[in-house]
Specification:
This protein has about 400 residues and is an alpha/beta fold. The protein has two domains: about 290 residues, NADP-dependent oxidoreductase domain (TIM Barrel, Alpha-Beta Barrel); about 90 residues, no CATH class. It is about 45% helix and about 10% strand. The protein has an eight-stranded parallel β-barrel with strand order 3-4-5-6-7-8-9-10, surrounded by seven helices.
Length: about 400
């Protein structure tokens, strides 16, 4: 495992961090039991035993169960001493100053630790930063640092580039966490924000390196043909990670790994990839892949499920994944999965098509990608929810036993 220094500290962080938003889960069950604990413990400790030393969680991950899971099952038996723990203050639900301390104390209790190594304001944009400043968050951050309850202070970001620069300038941050991948070079903070934060002496942690998994697995034939041009054959994950590691300003990449083979592959890539290690030909291939994806993708959903639960019962990440797959892969297969997830295998046994939308707009206010969800629903309805699909779903609900589906497995 390679390590890069976190600026403003002596910490050596593994270039691969473990994201605890997409842990392996069971289908159905109460929110606290969604995580497949035996499998998740095995996988996280497999990563730690192979050099990963950073665990990233947050207050809302796994419906609030992620932090407690780490405290109860991971940060034991000497493993607390092997890792840096990161979690986040959920700015999206805070409306009064006292809530910051209340939630912070809950997080310490759930994690069963006295000090949080890396603490972030969660999912900031321009308006949420202004709200948090008005509530006194700067004094709050200064105090918990002074009391040594937090070692390093940062923020994760989903917003406009100009707001990112402003936030960077308005506090003495140690680090930031941004979305960055081969498709999102100029999206949100982008490369401009990455370089700006680095110039200010901040560590830069990358989230969504595979765009919620959409850059790996089954990829379009047109994209694979571009990768096949390369002299050295690499997997799509290898290309995606290596391209990010090529940036010297990147401190770490977070990956939400929930399969053993993915953990092993990602560790191998992290061990091999050097800053400025890609050739001009390599960079040209990635640029070609980016152009082709931009032509094919219909919606920039990463499957994070921040939009869930939907009051109308719509599995929004599944609908958007099916829409993208419809335009990149098999139309018939995409329609089958759509009728299955939204029309048959629902928690209550009833169909929840995107046309069931009650126009509340909650999903759009929560979406870190700023997707105009309700407008995209119109395209989903056109491509995936025709009369034939609805009829087959109706038959399926009659013939098949009810099966509860975990929305977090979508995407």
């Amino acid at each position: 495992m390679q390590y890069r220094s976190m600026p403003k500290s002596s910490d050596k962080l593994s270039v691969l961090g473990y994201g605890c938003m997409r842990l392996p889960t069971f289908v159905g069950g109460a929110a606290s039991s969604l995580i497949d604990k035996e499998k998740a413990v095995h996988q996280i400790r497999l990563a730690i035993d192979n050099g990963v030393n950073y665990l990233d969680t947050a207050y809302p991950y796994h419906m609030g169960a992620s932090e407690s899971f780490l405290g109860e099952h991971i940060l034991k038996d000497g493993y607390r001493e092997k890792v840096f723990v990161a979690t986040k203050l959920p700015c999206m639900i805070i409306s009064k100053a006292s809530a910051m301390e209340e939630i912070f104390q809950k997080q310490l209790a759930k994690l069963q630790i006295d000090t949080i190594d890396y603490y972030l304001l969660h999912s900031l944009d321009g308006s949420s930063w202004e709200k948090m400043k008005d509530l006194g968050v700067i004094d709050f951050m200064d105090r918990i640092r002074k009391e040594k309850k937090v070692r390093h202070m940062g923020f994760s970001f989903h917003g406009r580039k100009e707001d990112f620069m402003k936030i960077v300038d308005e506090y003495n941050w140690d680090f930031t966490q941004i979305q960055y991948n081969i498709l999102d070079e100029h999206f949100q903070a982008g490369i401009e924000g990455l370089d700006y934060a680095h110039s200010k002496g901040m560590g830069v942690i990358i989230m969504e390196p595979l765009r919620g998994g959409s850059l790996v697995g089954k990829i379009p034939d047109e994209v694979q043909k571009i990768y096949d041009i390369a002299e050295i054959r690499r997997s799509p994950a290898d290309w995606a990670f290596r391209w990010i590691y090529n940036h010297p300003a990147v401190t770490m990449i977070l990956s939400g790994m929930n399969r053993d083979e993915h953990i092993i592959e990602n560790i191998r890539i992290a061990d091999e990839s050097l800053p400025e290690g890609m050739t001009d030909d390599d960079i040209s291939i990635v640029a070609g892949v980016r152009d082709r994806y931009n032509q094919l993708l219909q919606v920039g959903c990463t499957g994070c499920a921040y939009c869930m639960p939907c009051p109308a019962g719509i599995d929004i990440p599944a609908a958007f994944k099916n829409l993208n797959n419809f335009h990149m892969f098999s139309k018939m297969e995409s329609r089958f999965y759509h009728l299955s997830y939204l029309g048959v295998q629902t928690a209550d046994g009833k169909a929840h098509w995107t046309s069931s939308c009650i126009n509340c707009g909650q999903c759009e206010s929560k979406c870190p990608q700023n997707i105009p969800v309700r407008n995209v629903f119109k395209q989903v309805q056109k491509d995936l929810e025709g009369p034939g699909v609805r009829m087959l779903a109706s038959v399926g609900r009659t013939l098949l036993p009810r099966k509860t589906v975990n929305p977090q497995k979508s995407g």
